[in-house]
Amino acid sequence: MVELTIDGMRIRALEGATVLEAAQEMGIVIPTLCHHPGLSPYGACRVCIVEVGKGDRRSLEASCTLPVEHGQVILTNSEKVRKQRKLIVELLIASCPNSKTLQDMAANMGINRIRFRIRDRGCILCGLCVRYCKEQMKSGGIGFTCRGTSRMVATAFEVTPEECRNCGGCEWICPVCERACTAGNLIDGLCGGCQNLAPVETCPVCTGCSESVGPQGHKVY
Amino acid sequence: MKCDCAKVAAITSKYKGNRDSLVSILQDIQSEYRYLPEDALRGVARQLDIPMIQIYGIATFFKAFSLKPRGEHIVSICMGTACHVRGAPATLDEVKRRLGIEPGETTEDMRFTLETVNCVGACALGPIVVVDGKYHGGTGPAKVKKTLKKYTGRAIT
Predict the structure, then answer these.
(1) Model-level pTM?
(2) With an 8 Å Cβ cutoff, are A145 and B57 in contact?
C-alpha cells in the first residue's frame, strides 16, 4: 500500500494504481475524456491534469497515467489546475466544436470564449475508438494514420477492414459521435445552449462536481 | 505493378517473420518496388499476423514510405531557411516547369518524382537539389537543366 494526500485527505492506495483511480475511489471527481475504465490509460486529452507535489517541486501531470507514489501531495482542483484545464478544453473545442461532451465541460468550467481559431476536424484524437477496437473487440480495424496536423483515425486504404464486425463500438465510445452538439450556430466556438437551458447546479450529495446537472438529473457513471 | 507474393514472402522470412522488424520489412519492399503496393502490404499483414491498419499507420507515418508509385529518380529540393534565402523557390519553380509536375507528384513516364524537404544539413551549399541521394550544391535555376540532364540522358524541355 502507498500513502498519499489528495486534496488534503490522507489516503492509502494500492501500489501500481493511478492517481485518477485513487481519487475516484475516494469519490473525488476529476474530469476525464480519453479515460475509460475498460481500456488502457492513454493520457491524450490532458483534461485530467492534477497538481503534483513531492518535496518542494510542483508540477502538472495527467492523473490517468500517473502512478501513485509514497508521500505524493495531489491537488485536483487548485487555481493553477483549473486555469490550465480551461485552456486544454478550449484547445480541444477549437479542433472539435460539435461535441456535447466538450461543450458541457466548457459550460461547467465557465469558459465563455474560445481564444483559438476554430478548425473543425470532428475528432480530438483521444484514441478511445482505436483502443476500444483493439482491446475490447480484439479486432484492430481502425487506427491512427499520417502524422502531425494531418493525423487522423482511419481504416487501412479507406475500405472497411475484414477485421471489422460492425459492432459500432467506436461510435458508441466516441465523445463526438455519440453526443454530438446539434447547436446550429456556434458563437465563438461555444454553443452555450446547454448552459442556458440547464444551468449548472451542484449536486446535493457531492460538491465541486464536474458533470452538469441536466434535465434528466445527475449522470452517474 | 502487380505484386509478387513470393517476393514479399522472401522478404518477411528474411526477418524470420518478426513483428518488430516491420519497418525494415517495409523498407525492403519499398526498395524493391520503389513504393509500397497494397497487395504487398496485405501479404505482410497476413504473414506477420498483425492488423492491416498497423502497417498502414506506419506506412503513412514515415515520409520515406510512399503508397503511390514513385519515379526512377527522386528529386528532392531543399526548402530549408538557408536554401530559401539562397533562392530555392526559384529553383523549385524551374524544376516544376521542366518536369511539369508539382511536389509530391511523379512524371507520366515514371522517370522523376519531385519532392521538397526542409533541410538536408548542408546549408553552405544551398540551394541544394538531391537526386537519388546525390547532392548537387549551388543549383540555381540556371543549373537545373544541366543537373536533370545527367539523369535523363536527353535534354528535357
Answers:
(1) 0.78
(2) yes
